[in-house]
Amino acid sequence: MSLRLAVTGATGRMAQEVVAEADERGDETLAVSRGAERVDGFEVSPADDLPTLLAEERPDALVDFTDPEASVEYVAACAEAGVPAVIGTTGFSDDQLDALRRASDEVPVLHAPNFSRGVAVLTDLVERATRLLPDYDVELTETHHREKRDAPSGTANALLDAIEAERADAGQDSGERVHGREGVAPRDDGDIGVHARRAGGVRGEHEVLFAGGDESLTLAHRAGSRRVFASGALDAAEWLAGRDAGWYEFEEVLA
Ligand SMILES: NC(=O)c1ccc[n+]([C@@H]2O[C@H](COP(=O)([O-])OP(=O)(O)OC[C@H]3O[C@@H](n4cnc5c(N)ncnc54)[C@H](OP(=O)(O)O)[C@@H]3O)[C@@H](O)[C@H]2O)c1
């Protein structure tokens, strides 16, 4: 099925991957930007006109990889116009996430901090390791390119949430999320160390270390290019188009 998609943040790295991937799939894109009028050869509509564009063009979905404040505004426009929204932006506050959830009363909304299939499998494996290695120390390290704004990454937070949820189900104390260490900083039982590295052009790496007395296990994922996230987001858009209003997860797309 070929789609018609609004793509926000047109000057952004992810939006350009989404447009390129959509082009390869034969999907049509309506690119939207706060400032630019043209991006690398394709026409762009102003973000201020998004409500009109959605109402007149009625795309199958909007795909958004921008900034939390902008995403909340764009999803509100989707709710108004009845357009499904696929959101890849990370770094939302609880209030901003509530705003996205409110929009899902009106239209289908799917937010995922990571649209890679490999990371979905990593999350499953991390949950399994948490269950089977209950007393092991856990340390999470993520690495991203130097321009990434939020830390730790949305994917790291989702992995931490998954570990804590598994521990809670097992009646186990999760301790604190300890962000880096300095000086005299012994580890307390149950704490999860969190380390965010920012360097060069790294696309996205996540590694979870489970260490017991005499052994350690490392589960890791590396994204080779941004295309993997664009591809997952377009799979999500295809899956979401035409569904009832509601809040959906990327795992449902993969299932
Ligand atoms: N879910 C996933 O799989 C996944 C994968 C990679 C990245 N991400 C997330 O996707 C988001 C975008 O990443 P990116 O690497 O594409 O970022 P980027 O290159 O900085 O692009 C973001 C674009 O968003 C637009 N924007 C609108 N309002 C903005 C604001 N208030 N501040 C800054 N930019 C604003 C801008 O485009 P215009 O000026 O053209 O509107 C900007 O170029 C980030 O939150 C990142 O963490 C998610």
Automatic annotation (TrEMBL):
Coiled-coil residue windows: none
Any single Pfam family the record assigns to this protein: DapB_N
SUPFAM superfamilies linked: Glyceraldehyde-3-phosphate dehydrogenase-like, C-terminal domain, NAD(P)-binding Rossmann-fold domains
CDD domains, alphabetized: DHDPR_N
Predominant cellular place of this UniProt entry's protein: cytoplasm
Dihydrodipicolinate reductase C-terminal domain span: 118-254
One example GO MF annotation: oxidoreductase activity, acting on CH or CH2 groups, NAD or NADP as acceptor
EC top class, as a word: oxidoreductase
UniProt-annotated catalytic positions: 144, 148
Matching PROSITE patterns: DAPB
GO CC terms, sorted: cytoplasm
Binding positions ((S)-2,3,4,5-tetrahydrodipicolinate): 145, 154-155
Similarity remark: Belongs to the DapB family.
Protein name from the UniProt record: 4-hydroxy-tetrahydrodipicolinate reductase
Species for this entry: Halomarina salina
Gene label: dapB
